[in-house]
Amino acid sequence: MPGLARSDSLDRVNRSDRRALIVDDSAAFCAAATRLLESAGVTVVGTASTTAAALRSAEENCPDLILVDIDLGAESGFDVVEALLAASAPPRPDVILVSTHDEDDFADLVESSSAIGFLPKFGLSADAIIALSSRDRGTW
After folding, report:
1. pLDDT tens per residue, the chain (140 residues)?
2. Residue 48 CB contacts under 8 Å (≥ 6 apart), including other chains
3. Smaller CB count within 10 Å for the chain: N or C?
4. Which residues touch 13 (CB under 8 Å, ≥6 apart)?
């Protein structure tokens, strides 16, 4: 995805021990987000396109961060977020909703979800992820 931007401040924080899971039904987005995260020193431990696959991967790989697409075809990303967090033992991963849609389209649903926030797919960057996760738990 050409809209994904590499962070300008990747060296400020050591993220080499961080693990991420990407839940999206677009193989192109999964590949682009994987490249972005790995260039920031984050290990992508898996990708999934369904709730069942996401739950399985999260249980097996214990990611610190999970990116979840709001629109997963027949499934709702909001439901996936709740299922992932309900199945996670503390410390729970940071879960961030992503979409090609405008944030305003889902503002109330994002606010009422258990996700730590929302990022547009075309604006996804390591700095944006850090900014969201830093609000909840300090430096990611």
Report:
1. 444 544 433 333 444 578 999 999 999 999 999 999 998 888 999 999 999 999 999 999 999 999 999 999 899 999 999 999 999 988 899 999 999 988 888 899 999 999 999 999 988 888 888 788 766 554 44
2. 21, 22, 23, 54, 56, 57
3. N
4. 130, 139, 140
What is residue 92's DSSP assignment? P
Asked if residue 7 belongs to a domain, the reply is: no
Residue ranges making up the domain that contains 37: 18-134
Q: Is residue 140 part of a domain?
A: no
Residue 89 covered by a domain: yes
Residue type, position 139, single letter = T
Q: Quick one: tokens of 69? A: 């697409």
Q: Residue 127 sits in a domain of what CATH number?
A: 3.40.50.2300
Structure-token pair, residue 28: 């192109």
89: left (phi over 0), alpha (psi -120 to 50) or beta: beta
